[in-house]
Description:
The complex is a heterodimer.
Chain A: E1 4-8, H1 9-19, E2 24-27, H2 34-45, E3 52-55, H3 59-71, E4 76-80, H4 82-87, H5 89-97, E5 103-108, H6 122-126, E6 133-136, H7 140-155, E7 163-168, E8 176-180, H8 184-190, H9 214-246, E9 253-256, E10 263-267, H10 271-284, E11 289-294, E12 296-298, H11 302-309, E13 314-319, H12 330-339, E14 347-352, H13 362-377, E15 384-386
Parallel strand pairs in A: 2-3, 2-4, 4-5, 5-7, 6-7, 10-11, 10-13, 13-14, 14-15
Antiparallel strand pairs in A: 1-8, 6-12, 9-11
Chain B: E1 36-40, H1 50-54, E2 60-62, E3 68-70, H2 80-84, E4 90-94
Antiparallel strand pairs in B: 1-4, 2-3
Amino acid sequence: MGKKVGIEVSLAIAEAAKLANVDVVAAYPITPQTHIVERMAEIVANGELDAEYIPVESEHSAMSACLGSSGVGARTFTATAGQGLELMHEVLYVASAMRLPIVMVVANRALSSPLNVWGDQSDLMAVRDTGWIQMICENGQEAFDTTLLAFRIAEDHRVLLPVMVHCDGFYLTHVVEPIEFLSQEDVNRFLPPINYPLPLNPDKPLTMGAFAPSFIYTEAKKAQEVNIRNSKKVITELWSEFAKTFGRQYHAVEKYRTEGAKTLLMTLGSFGETAMTAVDKMRSEGQEVGLLKLRLWRPFPFEELREAVGNAELLIVVDRALSFGGPGGPAYSEVRSALYSEKTHPKIVGFVGGLGGRDLTVAEFEGMVKKGPGITNTGAENEFEMFGVRE
Amino acid sequence: MKKNENELTWKDLNTGCIVTEPGSSREYRTGDWRSQKPTYNFTKCIKCGVCQIYCPEGCIQQNADGNFEANMYWCKGCGICTKECPTGVISMINEEA
């Protein structure tokens, strides 16, 4: 076991990338991701890590440079947030379709306008369909572990897909937490050197990202869909291997005090910890309330979700993003869709809250549990509410 | 490519659609973009090769008689050769439906 160190989570993430012995970092600083890439730049500049740090002029260029470095078979790392993630949007599709195992930490942030640099998950949801694996972290230890795991998952020859590691901006990135580090020897054992099967090489020419007319484009997309769906099995397998090696087990859907729970809250990311405190309080008062925490957003864990929901009567999904004019929060919408075909399933209601850095407190999670059943019973077309909004 | 382009399934594709065979874009049949095709009156041909120089597709070669003729696998039917030919050898006619 490694030692526990009190450290800002951003710096721990940079440490994980260093332990992963990345070859190339191409990044552009943006709040609240800045500390991650600042530390990476330092690590490379002071010779702690033999890597290329490419200080690009925009996030679009950052991801484009990552395509190139990953294409030659270099282990490639970047990080961004909010507007930066949106600026690289079109290149994200290229990375996944070309099956380049880039690892990117996203310090999740609200999107303009109005300008807001604080945490929410609008950026995470906006890149939902880009074909990347998306994993969501709840605390600093998970951020460290998941960053390391992301390289192993991305580079597995059964996967070969880019991975986003989502860490709530400020709530995770800027807090100091006790984090158990892994030794370089342990990391080397768990994460072998990258071995990309078809790298760009002048002695063995090949073409990446070639033109595909209509006669083959559909087949290319089908291959991509099958690939990311099948990656879930590998992710699960590697989580188990990580648990066997380092003692921390991760699941696509984490369950907290769900035994006999009639009402389940569901969160994504750091707010799960506040929700746990709320569940503890409500349980101590005799309420049958539990919590589900969604760790894997893409590929979506349909079976794991159905199993975790069990016999609950009410499922309250808390989103920190909004699909304007749509069915409510994206997670709420997808969870409802995933459970629709089940013979029995709980009533599902959605709350949208915690936008642009507004806290969701224990009292507010309690309020959702109190208010949830009423929303279900109204029979309204939109069974979701923006929680805590001033009317 | 072993299979005809319309027989390829998603399982036949390389990881990330990577193309490992150099020059394979030659196999792309641009000829099916065509709505008109060139026809030739070679008695007027002076074998100057102007049509070959102007052809944006690079699909015009000399045939066995030394006359310049487009390869229908790639000819997109743009008609530039018709405009450029100094002796009026080429005329464009509609492709049959």
